[in-house]
Specification:
Number of helices of chain C: 12
Order of helices and strands of chain A: HHHHHHHHHHHHHH
Number of strands of chain A: 0
Largest sheet of chain A: none
Shape of chain C: globular
Strand content of chain C: 15-25%
Oligomer: heterotrimer
Number of helices of chain A: 14
Strand order of the largest sheet of chain C: 6-7-8-3-9-10-12-11
Largest interface: A-B, 57 and 67 residues
Number of strands of chain C: 12
CATH architecture of the largest domain in chain A: Orthogonal Bundle
Shape of chain A: globular
CATH class of the largest domain in chain A: Mainly Alpha
CATH topology of the largest domain in chain A: MetI-like fold
Chains: A mainly alpha (333), B alpha+beta (729), C alpha/beta (326)
Largest sheet of chain C: 8 strands, mixed
Helix content of chain C: 25-40%
Helix content of chain A: over 70%
Distance between the termini of chain C: 26 Å
Structural class of chain A: mainly alpha
Structural class of chain C: alpha/beta
Strand content of chain A: under 5%
CATH superfamily of the largest domain in chain A: MetI-like
Distance between the termini of chain A: 8 Å
């Protein structure tokens, strides 16, 4: 991979302006809304005028927009910006909640790959057979059913009926934290009892989230596989006398090229948080936080969340691009 | 209170005169515009002097009124007749009921009184002026007077009058009082109800045979002795000075102590908590609180114990005021902390010796001359730790109620100031000069003490529990405080109830999703669940082992109002407002929106509180005929008006109410639209008077009618003078 | 006496599509003699590719070989009907004793593997080397054979790093890697520039000579036929219409289609007034014309042509034609 370094530098240069651009746009949209959020921050109907004035000054809401923007950005990165709704530093809030979302995304992703990939390939191999039809119908059902219906159904089945999961709170992570993501730390520090607890808690929301995405992946994998299989190069391989197993290796590798980039983008999407799943399963993640920030016009939280999203998406795209380059030699950086 | 002597002379004169004179005044049914007459039809049996009987005109009062008021408005309340008007002369009244009369006279300072436009521009809706922007100097006079008066009878009458006036003027249509529901498993025992305070979980017990269920957080289980509640919310701060919502207060009530408190379901009087005894001067402007000795705040992180004394109380109050957050309005309005300070026992003895200090407790009153006497009066014989002298700018009848609020819990100053403690105390002369503390406490959230309290949410508190662990929006775990000063009550409780255990751990499991909370409850992971009224069927008649689920309901002081913009046409006409009150489908709303969990109320004071009355009010019910009649009398053309009803997005209950109103009010001929607004937008528009109608709820800050009447009726009138006279006979 | 290496007898392949059954080739028979270059010509859609693929059952669904035999004569003298072999049996022959070169080198090679790997793979799957590494080492020699300069470095290249001509050389390299007996080249130069065409054909010839192989060359370019082939089979609309030596076909074309085909190729040395084309269009093979499939376009068509399918008749030694005029 020639020029990986140069490529990263080039990407890095566009990264900062992208971040600034995105957050500035979001900020200005929120700024332009003609409602004064301070009253909501100061206690709603019971807000006292003095408190409103005090909070206004504290958050620079009486200053011009560029001053406010700079105040928010600076505060966010020096970790001195407090979320007016719960008095915690925004950076900490986002960090804590992102960990939850990240873990949920990991579990969901696990199921997406576990279910989507093999079923997609099976579906392609047994194309147009009864198995294929059944799998495609099931995938369609899961994609089109609203997630809260699936979620409530699963909760009834797995929590109430079968006791196979827990719904309360978030289990704390293991005592030694390396990456701060509990499941990963559990594996790294071999803390199996905590690992079991994390799995008990997260597998069902991960499964619920993952199932719809797995359906999408399944169909995509199936199509990609069929497309790769129908190419001339496959016929040539047959003409070479290549046995079936080796043939499928060739086809799979070709089929997975677009699939992997889709996966990278899907993971990025999962990291943006899924408010409905988070609400139903009691997981205080980024999705809910972002929603609340919008509802209460919580400027500090909004800026923080937007930064996070921008970073997540730019990174996900970057990883997708790099993966593409690694797998497909035709693609130059 | 000038003229006590004059009143006495007048009394004699009036008695003599009325004996000489004779005459009857008919029951107050003459519709003079200055008299507020009781509703035709229902009158309650509780009115002692029924105005239907012939009444003797108290000419003493009439004369007084004529001599002191230029205009008089008469309000008939159960025990008194309240007459209010601008000071002057020449006011004539004709239907004074035969009962003692309270005459209130005032002089408005027009220059200092802000105009309605000004108040709207300054977004003072629910601030200096009521949300309906209705101006009535009579009401302001009674409101401001009631704050100063300490005699509970007079206060009661004034609040009665305000209740009745609000009922007639209808700046806000009262939808009713909410009935709360409690969903719990019947292994929970002694879960009492208090309208203002959350339950103290250490007083709630559980059956020894209750099942033990794993929760999924660490190794915690929901076993007998652990209470698990699944509910919504998160404290908006772990610093009580920055929290003004119910969940935070519920938490503080369990981890902290206030000077006084309401014990279990008591609502009429306060009980000692951190203060073992209290007394006040004759006019009620100076209060003395004797602080309990031997109370130690516990730091679970280090195991350190901090003894509490009166200086800690003073410092914490000062800090709450200085922090500047909305919740400090009570301290800012009702107390004068600059003049308040902590005293030693000997300093207090000197004050008592000088006389004039009165103690009221358990229905008895006594002037106390020394500390021992005071303590004995309160039945206390243990150690003390100083006395907190609290000075009020005016006497306030509800001051004890305010002090029971959980955000006023005491945190040791030594913990908060850390190594600056000695320095800060010296600078403030150990509390005699509290202004000096401003160098150590900043306003706003940048204050280092605030940030320390917020970050160390485990805290250092004095209450029955301490915070063991918390995860934002996920769970909070409380554990029994091993150094709690009142731990003996637990043993007593267990002795009296041998089949039950007291609570050693409390776990709040937070969830925004009702179905999930219900699921947790169904499995027994939660003992208690917050369930919306339309989902109650899912938790009825559940069984676990030999236990059943229970749903209790009771009336709360939480009320729902429909605010009408009285400064805007057509709501500026009282007949229109009244018509809308008759056109509101109360029963339909109770059933459709609240599933029956609401009861009617006709004025802005919760049912059963001081000032609430069922006499002399119009009992609005859904009556389209009456409504149409009033519209006709008002002389407006309804089709000229488009009315927008605002509610906050996402609040499905208010959305339903608005839709039902649209239906019935529309029948009067108005064009009605229902508009959801985002929360901040709604707050902005309503604060600046830019609305027609909106729906709002109100929950009490403390147990006093002023907490309702003030916000819902005041209109920022400034008086040069405000006086009252009680005329009996 | 030339001996056949492959005898194709009555081969019919149908494609079962949604539009109907396409009778791609019907009753095709001819022999391929050992050591020769046999050209299979016809216009696009006449069935030449299908025929060539059917030889090793390389027909994909929805196509099906409905009839026929393909007798393959091994070096040791034994014969086998390729169409009756098992999947594993035919796999052993493909790429080994009978190898293919396809038309479009850009789509024949797998873009995700190096050319060295792909050449080595051809040897490895037939057990000619122990593992891929050895195969890639041998691939260097193959690359040298197909005249690709700097083969030691080229062997690590990916297909997209090579030009069209070089890719086709690689494909040829794959084809000859296992010393095939029959090399089936399906329009190997059609996708390449004219200048490269000549090189590739020359390379093919050279390798055929070197490996002592037989070549079945499919093309629609009569110039190429004249240059490289010894014998010609002409196909039209899924049927064989004429078989003969190059000399016979070019100087004495018997079938009207062959005649018209030759006339359609312009003579670069003469002055051309107008290009000749064969009137009409290629028939729809779902419902092919009854009788002789060429009759709608044949200037000599008679009543008999419309009803009866003409059979191949030997007119002069080695020269066969399927036409009612003879």
């Amino acid at each position: 991979m020639a020029g990986l370094g140069k490529f990263l530098i080039r990407r890095g240069l566009t990264f900062i302006p992208t971040l600034i651009g995105v957050t500035l746009i979001v900020f200005i949209i929120a700024y332009v809304i003609p409602a004064n959020p301070v009253r909501a921050w100061a206690g709603g109907e019971k807000a006292s005028q003095a408190a409103i004035e005090m909070i206004k000054k504290e958050y620079h809401l009486d200053q011009p927009w560029y001053d406010q923007y700079w105040f928010l950005v600076k505060g966010l990165f020096t970790n001195s910006l407090l979320d007016p709704l719960n008095q915690e530093p925004v950076f900490n809030n986002i960090g804590n909640r992102f960990i939850v979302t990240f873990q949920l995304a990991l579990f969901a992703f696990f199921f997406v790959i576990l279910i989507g990939l093999p079923l997609g390939i099976i579906s392609a191999l047994k194309r147009n057979s009864a198995t294929d039809m059944t799998l495609r119908i099931i995938a369609l059902i899961f994609i089109s059913t609203p997630i809260y219906v699936i979620a409530y159904l699963f909760i009834w089945l797995f929590f109430i009926h079968w006791n196979a999961t827990t719904l309360a709170g978030i289990p704390p992570g293991p005592p030694h934290t390396i990456t701060h993501i509990p499941v990963i730390d559990d594996i790294l520090t071999l803390d199996w009892s905590n690992f079991v607890q994390q799995v008990e808690r997260f597998w069902l929301p991960g499964f619920t989230l993952g199932i719809a995405a797995a359906g999408v992946l399944m169909r995509f994998t199936r199509n990609s596989f069929l497309e790769a299989y129908s190419r001339d190069s496959t016929l040539f391989l047959k003409a070479k006398g290549v046995p079936k197993s080796r043939l499928y290796r060739h086809v799979l590798k070709n089929a997975l090229v677009p699939v992997i980039t889709i996966l990278a983008l899907q993971f990025g999407g999962l990291l943006a948080g899924t408010p409905i799943t988070e609400t139903i399963f009691n997981l205080p993640g980024i999705g809910l936080y972002a929603l609340q920030a919008i509802m209460y016009l919580d400027f500090p939280a909004l800026i923080g969340v937007t930064f996070l999203y921008a970073i997540v998406f730019v990174t996900a795209n970057l990883i997708a691009d790099i993966l593409y380059v690694i797998i497909d030699p035709r693609v130059r950086l | 209170m000038r003229g006590k002597v004059a009143a006495a002379l007048l009394l004699v004169f009036v008695v003599a005169f009325s004996v000489a004179a004779s005459g009857c005044i008919g029951g107050g049914k003459s519709p003079t515009t200055t008299t507020i007459s009781p509703a035709a039809g229902k009158s309650t049996p509780s009115s002692t002097t029924s105005s239907a009987a012939t009444t003797v005109q108290s000419s003493k009062a009439v004369k007084y009124i004529e001599g002191h008021l230029s205009k008089a408005t008469v309000i008939d309340t159960p025990k008194y007749a309240v007459v209010v008007g601008p000071a002057g002369s020449g006011a004539k009244v004709s239907n004074l009921p035969n009962k003692p009369v309270i005459v209130v006279s005032y002089k408005v300072n027009e220059a200092k009184t802000p105009s309605i436009q000004e108040l709207m521009k300054n977004q003072q809706g629910f601030g200096q002026i009521n949300p309906a922007f209705l101006r009535d100097p009579n009401m302001d006079a009674l409101i401001q007077l009631a704050r100063k008066v300490t005699d509970p009878n007079i206060r009661g009458a004034l609040y009665n009058a305000l209740y009745i006036m609000a009922n007639k003027e209808v700046p806000e249509i009262i939808l009713g009082d909410n009935k709360a529901t409690r969903v719990y498993w019947n292994w929970v025992h002694n879960w009492y109800y208090n309208p203002v305070l959350a339950p103290r979980w250490d007083l709630v017990m559980e059956d020894k045979n209750a099942p033990s269920v794993s929760i999924g957080i660490g190794n915690y289980k929901n076993a007998p002795g652990t209470i698990v509640e699944t509910t919504i919310g998160w404290p908006s701060s772990f610093d009580p000075a920055f929290d003004y919502e119910t969940f935070g207060w519920a938490l503080y009530h369990n981890v902290g102590d206030t000077l006084v408190t309401y014990w279990e379901n008591e609502t009429k009087k306060v009980s000692p908590d951190l203060a073992v005894a209290w007394a006040h001067n004759k006019d009620g402007t100076v209060w003395y609180f004797v602080i309990r000795g031997g109370v130690k705040a516990y730091d679970p992180k280090t195991g350190e114990l901090y003894p509490i004394n009166a200086t800690d109380v003073e410092f914490e109050f000062w800090r709450v005021l200085r922090a500047g957050y909305s919740v400090n309005w009570m301290l800012a309005t009702y107390t004068n902390l600059s003049k308040s300070y902590a005293m030693t026992d000997s300093e207090f003895e000197k004050v008592l010796q000088n006389g004039g200090v009165i103690a009221d407790f358990n229905g008895k009153t006594k002037e106390v001359k020394n500390l021992n006497e005071l303590l004995q009066f309160f039945g206390y014989s243990g150690p003390t730790a100083g006395v907190y002298k609290l000075v009020l700018p005016h006497p306030y009848g509800g001051i004890l109620s305010v002090l029971a609020d959980p955000y006023l819990m005491v945190i040791p100053a030594k913990y908060m100031l850390g190594d600056k403690y000695e320095e800060a105390m010296k600078a403030a002369d150990w509390g005699k000069n509290p202004e000096a503390w401003n160098n150590y406490i900043q306003s706003g959230s940048k204050d280092p003490i605030h940030q320390m309290l917020q970050n160390n949410y485990i805290g250092v508190f004095t209450g029955p529990f301490y915070i063991k662990a918390a995860k934002q929006n996920s769970y909070i775990i409380l554990e029994r405080n091993p150094h709690y000063w009142n731990a003996s009550i637990w043993n007593k409780l267990e002795e009296k109830n041998p089949n039950y255990v007291t609570t050693k751990m409390v776990i709040y499991v937070l969830s925004n999703d009702a179905t999930t909370r219900i699921s947790l409850f169904q499995k027994g992971v939660a003992d208690i669940a917050a369930v919306p009224v339309d989902r109650l069927n899912a938790v009825k008649n559940l069984k676990l082992d030999s236990f059943e689920s229970r749903i209790d309901s009771f009336v709360t002081p939480d009320m729902v109002f429909i605010v009408l913009n009285a400064a805007k046409k057509p709501f500026d006409n009282v007949k229109v407002r009244e018509a809308l009150a008759w056109a509101t489908p109360y029963e339909q709303i109770y059933n459709a929106v609240y599933k029956g969990y609401m009861v009617p109320n006709y004025g802005p004071i919760p049912i059963g509180w001081l000032g609430y009355t069922e006499c002399c009010v119009i009992k609005y019910k859904y009556n389209i005929g009456k409504a149409l009649q009033l519209i006709k009398e008002a002389g407006i053309k309804p089709s000229d008006y488009t009315i927008s009803i605002y509610y906050n997005t996402g609040n499905t209950q208010r959305e339903k109410i608005a839709t039902l109103l649209q239906n019935t009010w529309g029948q009067l001929g108005f064009k009605i639209s229902v508009t959801p607004l985002s929360w901040p937008t709604l707050l902005s528009k309503t604060a600046s008077g830019d609305f027609d109608v909106y729906i709002v709820g109100w929950a009490p800050d403390f147990l006093d009618p002023d907490d309702y009447i003030g916000p819902f009726l005041q209109s920022a009138v400034v008086f040069d003078s405000l006086n009252y006279e009680v005329i009996k006979g | 006496m030339p001996e056949p290496i492959v005898e194709i007898k009555n081969l019919s392949v149908y494609f079962y599509t949604y539009a109907g059954v396409v009778k791609a080739i019907e009753d095709v028979s001819f022999d391929i003699y050992r050591g020769e270059t046999l050209a299979l010509v016809g216009e696009t859609g006449c069935g030449k590719s299908v025929t060539s693929r059917a030889i090793t059952k390389l027909i994909e669904s929805p196509g099906k070989i409905v009839n026929g035999q393909v007798i393959y004569h091994r070096d040791d003298g034994s014969t086998v009907d390729l169409l009756k072999l098992s999947d594993e049996g035919i796999r052993e022959i493909r790429g080994n004793e009978i190898a293919y070169i396809f038309q479009d080198p850009h789509s024949s090679l797998d873009p995700l593997y190096t050319v060295g790997y792909q050449i080595g793979e051809a040897m490895e799957v037939h057990g000619k080397v122990r593992n891929i590494k050895e195969g890639i080492a041998k691939a260097v020699n193959i690359l040298r054979e197909v005249l690709i300069p700097d083969p030691e470095n080229r062997v690590k290249n990916y297909p997209h790093e090579l030009s069209g001509g070089m890719k086709q050389r690689v494909v040829i390299g794959i084809g000859v890697a296992n010393n095939p007996r029959l090399l089936i080249a399906d329009e190997p130069t059609t996708a390449l520039d004219v200048t490269v065409q000549a090189q590739i054909l020359e390379l093919l010839n050279e390798l055929k000579r070197k490996y002592n192989a037989t070549v079945l060359l499919i093309t629609h370019n009569l110039g190429v036929v004249a240059e490289t082939a010894q014998r010609v089979v002409v196909m039209y609309a899924g049927k064989v219409v004429e078989i003969g030596t190059v000399d016979q076909i070019f100087h004495n074309p018997l079938h009207p289609y062959t005649t018209a085909l030759l006339r359609a190729v312009p003579n670069p040395l003469g002055k051309i007034e107008k290009l000749e084309s064969i009137p009409g269009t290629v028939p729809n093979l779902i419902t092919p014309p009854k009788g002789c499939r060429f009759h709608p376009r044949c200037p000599f068509a008679e009543e008999r042509c419309r009803k009866e399918v003409p059979k191949l008749k030997e007119i002069e030694p080695g020269h066969f034609v399927a036409c009612h005029r003879y």
